[in-house]
Amino acid sequence: MSGHLTRRFCAVAAGFTLIALGLATAGPAGAARLSLSGRTAPSATICCSVSAVAATSAGNAWAVGRGPRTVILHWNGTAWKRVPSPGQAYSTYLVSVAAISARDAWAVGYTSSRAGRDAPLILHWNGTVWKQVPSPSPSVGTVLDGVAGTSSDDAWAVGYTGTGPLTCGRCTTLILHWNGTTWKRVPSPNPSVGSVLDGVAVTSAGNAWAVGYTPRLAGSTLILHWTGTAWKRVPSPDPPGGGTLTGVAASSARSAWAVGYNQGGTLILRWNGKAWKRVPSPNPAAGVLEGVAATSAGNAWAVGSNDSGNTLILHWTGTAWEKVRSPNPTPDHGENLIGVAAVSARNAWAVGYAGGGGQALIARWNGVSWTT
């Protein structure tokens, strides 16, 4: 299952337990602060799944997801707190988040109508409040799956357009650019009908990556590169039977990672400044990787799940990818890590869900171990 579909299907009805040490929530009317480490809270104050996380420092991080409506959580260095966010009840989904500074962040996803027709959703944090901003909507079915930026006038959002609910049989790639004033669609390569972009990463105004897949030849990895003037498709390795890319991260113009899965399990590709090449990755029980983050050429994280229903975390040590112990609050009951963010070798976050989608999961790397 591709990353965008995984995120969609895990966004189910709210009213569950939120597993995250020190998490504090507040409802729209300023509900009392609740510590939700393994406790059940009112459904109006919690989400059922967290789909993405971004951080700028040890004291500033954002996580997004979906409960009765859009859910945005903020880490202030001490605790996670829910903050008010726009979004209609039971029909809005936040899939990705990017933090540029303490006063500048983006969250993207989509809104579904009763007719099942999706429209893009873009929210902006201005340092005080989250507000919805206008987004181009090329067709009656448009979903945004990834967002990334480097400055207040340079951000990218990617996804797909031209599809019906929960399917992408007729969709095409979609790339939007923020120029400091408006979001505008820019031309993007579309190898075949059914192509999807799931993730985006940017290091400068002249260097960005977008990844996904195209259904041609039973499913092929898809990697696009922004050169500063245009998006172009670049060659990407395809394992036997094809592959799907769900996330991308870049630490410089010469170092980037793309992750996903194929028939044999986890799939990891590396950009060395000249070409994308497949690198060996642990494949525990046909693992699936959903997200990746990198702080340097010698430090990166990839997260996902295995087919036993347990979370999966891999670490790049500078020479090899290694599996590390990951939190599993409800073992073998449908756990998945979808997003990961890192600000240093000793500080990282991973988010997703446990209990088959009924419990949000937030884990932290403290330089020694991952804990919830």
Structure description:
The protein is an all-beta fold and about 375 residues long. Helices cover about 0% and strands about 50% of the residues. The strands form seven sheets. Strands 1, 27, 28, 29 and 30 form a five-stranded mixed sheet that branches. Strands 2-6-5-4-3 form a five-stranded mixed sheet, with no helix packed on it. A hairpin with a 2-residue loop joins strand 20 (about 255-260) and strand 21 (about 265-270). The radius of gyration is 18 Å and the shape is globular. The two termini are about 25 Å apart.
Report the portion of residues in β strands: over 45%
Overall form? globular
Report the structural category.
mainly beta
Return the average pLDDT rounded to an integer. Answer: 83
Q: Count helical runs.
A: 1
> Care to count the β-strands?
30
Quaternary structure = single chain
Give the distance, in angstroms, between the N- and C-terminal Cα atoms.
Answer: 26 Å
**Mind summarizing the main beta sheet?**
5 strands, mixed
Q: Give start-end ranges of low-pLDDT stretches.
A: 1-47
Rg to the nearest angstrom?
18 Å
Helix content: under 10%
